[in-house]
Design goal:
- The complex is a heterodimer of chains A (about 325) and B (about 375).
- With about 325 residues, chain A is α+β, with helices and mostly antiparallel strands.
- Chain A is built from twelve helices and seven strands.
- Chain A has a domain of about 140 residues: Butyryl-CoA Dehydrogenase, subunit A, domain 3.
- In chain A, the strands form two sheets. In chain A, strands 1-3-4-5-2 form a five-stranded mixed sheet. Chain A has a two-stranded antiparallel ribbon with strand order 6-7.
- In chain A, a hairpin with a 2-residue loop joins β6 and β7.
- With about 375 residues, chain B is of the alpha+beta class.
- Chain B has three domains: about 80 residues; about 110 residues, Butyryl-CoA Dehydrogenase, subunit A, domain 2 (Beta Barrel); about 140 residues, Butyryl-CoA Dehydrogenase, subunit A, domain 3 (Up-down Bundle), CATH 1.20.140.10.
- Chain B is built from eleven helices and eight strands.
- In chain B, the strands form two sheets. Chain B has a four-stranded mixed sheet. In chain B, strands 2-3-7-6 form a four-stranded antiparallel sheet, with no helix packed on it.
- Chain B is globular, with a radius of gyration of 21 Å.
- The chains are: A alpha+beta (about 325), B alpha+beta (about 375).
């Protein structure tokens, strides 16, 4: 039993976080809102680290490194679909999981890349970006997609993605690592804030009412961290369970995000709504990750349908322990 | 990463399930029911485990254990709790009384107590909480008054599980007053059949034996009954709590009941509201989440690291899971006929789980204390 990422992956994530900080850190998303073409700056920084050479489908080690990279990108709210690009199938620059009823993704300004889209049933499409309906400040770079068959059959018959669900699993799991990085940061900045902000002559972090809310958020965040690692391991070792485990992670991650952002906003008070705080930017740009392809209720329903009567694998999986 | 516990642990799990199948009757819901036969089942099962070297498998070999790995110990905890703890009250002696005696007991105390615990022949209770010393345990008032070469102990303990059946008590009493309330506390090992001890059961929703009051009236104890150093009992307690950082594997029973639910309901499962099925699926996710949080703590412990904040976070998650899963399961079984054969056992198991879950956020340290510990750690790391 090894419950942590490899040392190499952790170090890669630390290097990526430092590189993104050197490239602008929190300014990256602010600049990209002004000019979506700035989204490419993140890609350039990560290219220098060899990020786009990672083969997450063939190497469990590289999958772990990719996850650490996504988490680092989330820490800064980096305005680039890092996870989606790392999950790319053959013949595309990136992969997004979509709801076929209203396909959309946070790809505004990235029409120069070729995009694949996959639905939860494993059907793979080519995706074309439609013009964004709103400016990035409101859209958080979300734009609608037009889908067409990836190949004449609508499925890549020879692709392992469709055989095993690895494509859907990857497309769900890696963005959760990005969201995890956002949750890490939201709690970090909030802990610092309540340690400094004084009311009634003392730091508000000394109030038990504040402390207890923080712990509610932290328990949610730490749970996502463990489920995210488990989903990676599942992708690499148990492809039959990859979609179920990814849906389980996604449900926990977006429910956790609801708690974390509710708590961290509340503890910041009014300043948390303002552009001068990191939380405000993280909160707005977490929205696409939380709503697409499915929000909490639809994800819960999708998970229930997917696992049926069998349930999630675990201690009482008769196949595992007869 | 590797979340597979390995072939040895899987084999141990199979062996434990086989023993439960062979020695624990179907429908067993724990030792502490209105049926005295259930208590006898637990006593016999402990002897079966002891005979096979599984009761104290986690103990070092020098004390009669098998030196089981952290993950084998985890499997034992999970399997026992999932199957309604057929060890009964023995887990207390095995999990922390025995280890505390190994660490702090005299050779005489070790020779007297450890073999009996290892054979599954003795039940212990924990004389900690008092009417005015719950979460603030160090405020305890039970007093040990020096008299010659011993003490007279007088006071009251409360919420003392298994006190009606226990042969021994791990008792905390105040032997002096220091600058801090944590100073001056001494731990004693005392026999429960002493006439100076009176036990009064407290009727409660979990069933018999769980909660009792213990009154101590001039109980005579000597230096030979002290474990650790006089006035240094608090450090012994802190170490005891460290043995129990992961505590009960509550997630295991939650997961087992949730996984059994579709089969228990049969065709009726398909008629459940989609919203309830979604909540059921969500609880399975939360079971996995709590289990993985436990594994993080255990993984660190197995390499000699202890991060109390991780333990606190896990305990918050798992106790909330206990209660949340109980609510979902109660709604799932609500449609089962009360008098039908099929599903009746499952319904009773769920109802028992629900009754017990109510105490989850209070027992063995309230969830508020865990929140305080976790918050302090979060804030200190960034100050």
């Amino acid at each position: 039993m090894i419950t942590g990422l490899s040392d190499e992956a952790v170090e890669f994530g630390q290097v990526a976080r430092a590189a993104l900080e050197a490239a602008g850190g929190d300014r990256l998303v602010e600049d990209a809102e002004d000019d979506p073409r700035e989204r490419g700056r993140v890609a350039d920084v990560l290219a220098e680290l060899g990020a786009w050479d990672l083969d997450v489908r063939e190497s469990a080690d590289e999958l772990e490194a990719a996850a650490a990279l996504c988490r680092a990108a989330g820490w800064w709210g980096a305005p680039h679909p890092v996870a989606e690009r790392l999950a790319r199938p053959a013949d595309a620059d990136g992969l997004v999981v979509v709801d076929p009823v209203a396909p959309a993704a946070r790809l505004d300004g990235l029409a120069g890349l070729t995009w694949a889209a996959v639905t939860l049933d494993g059907t793979l499409h080519r995706a074309t970006l439609l013009p964004a309906a709103q400016a990035p400040r409101k859209s958080a770079f979300v734009t609608s997609l037009a889908l067409r068959n990836f190949d004449p059959g609508g499925r890549l018959a020879t692709s392992a993605d469709n055989v095993s669900g690895v494509g859907v699993g990857l497309g769900l799991t890696l963005p959760c690592w990005t969201l995890l990085g956002m949750l890490d940061r939201a709690i970090d900045v909030t802990c610092r804030y309540v340690g400094e902000r004084e009311q009634f002559g003392v730091a508000i972090g000394t109030f038990q009412g504040v402390q207890f809310q923080l712990t509610e958020a932290e328990v949610e965040r730490s749970g996502v961290e463990e489920l995210a690692k488990y989903a990676l391991w599942s992708l690499a070792t148990r492809p039959d369970d990859a979609v179920a485990d990814a849906l389980a992670l996604r449900l926990a991650a977006i429910e956790a995000a609801e708690v974390v952002f509710r708590v961290t906003h509340q503890l910041h008070g009014a300043i948390g709504f303002c552009d001068e705080t990191t939380l405000s930017w993280l909160s707005r740009h977490s929205q696409p990750l939380r709503r697409l392809p499915l929000g909490p209720s639809a994800t819960r329903a999708a998970l229930a349908r997917h696992i049926g009567r069998r349930g999630l694998s675990g201690l009482f999986d008769e196949a595992a322990v007869p | 990463m590797d979340f597979d516990m390995g072939a040895d642990v899987a084999a141990l799990r199979r062996r434990l399930r086989g023993l439960v199948h062979d020695h624990v009757p179907p429908g067993y819901l724990g030792a502490f029911t209105d049926d005295p036969a259930d208590l006898e089942v637990a006593q016999k099962f402990c002897r079966v485990l002891a005979d096979q070297g599984l009761l104290c498998a986690a103990w070092p070999e020098e004390f009669g254990g098998a030196g089981a790995s952290a993950w084998e110990q985890t499997a034992v905890r999970e399997e026992m709790w999932a199957h309604h703890e057929p060890r009964g009250a023995q887990y207390m002696g095995v999990n922390w009384v025995g280890p505390a005696i190994m660490r702090h007991g005299t050779p005489e105390q070790q020779a007297k107590h450890l073999p009996a615990i290892a054979r599954g022949e003795v039940i212990w209770c924990q004389g900690f909480s008092e009417p005015n010393a719950g979460s603030d345990l160090a405020s305890l008032r039970t007093a040990a008054r020096r008299d010659g070469d011993g003490w007279h102990v007088t006071g009251q303990k409360i919420w003392t599980s298994y006190a009606t059946m226990a042969q021994w008590c791990f008792l905390l009493a105040r032997t002096s007053r220091g600058e801090k309330k944590q100073q001056g506390i001494t731990a004693f090992l005392v026999p429960m059949d002493d006439p100076a001890i009176e036990v009064r059961p407290i009727t409660n929703m979990m069933g018999p034996h769980h909660l009792n009051e213990v009154f101590l009236d001039e109980l005579w104890v000597t230096d030979a009954d002290v474990i650790g150093q006089v006035d240094q009992g608090w450090s012994v307690v802190q170490e005891i709590l460290a043995f129990e950082r992961v505590g009960i594997a509550r997630y295991a029973r939650c997961e087992r009941l949730l996984r059994l639910a579709p089969a228990a309901l049969g065709a009726a499962w398909d008629d459940l509201p989609a919203e309830l099925l979604g909540r059921w699926a969500r609880m399975l996710v939360h079971c996995r989440r709590a289990r993985l949080l436990a594994y993080r703590v255990i993984g660190l412990q197995s390499t000699g690291q202890v991060r109390p904040a991780d333990s606190a976070g896990y305990r918050i998650a798992v106790t909330r899971l206990d209660q949340d899963s109980a609510e979902v399961l109660m709604e799932i079984v609500a449609g089962l006929p009360l008098d039908a054969d099929a599903g009746t056992g499952f319904r009773r198991a769920v109802e028992g789980h629900h009754r017990y879950s109510v105490s989850a956020t209070v027992a063995s340290g309230s969830i508020e204390m865990q929140r305080i510990l976790l918050a302090r750690s979060l804030l200190a790391a960034r100050s």
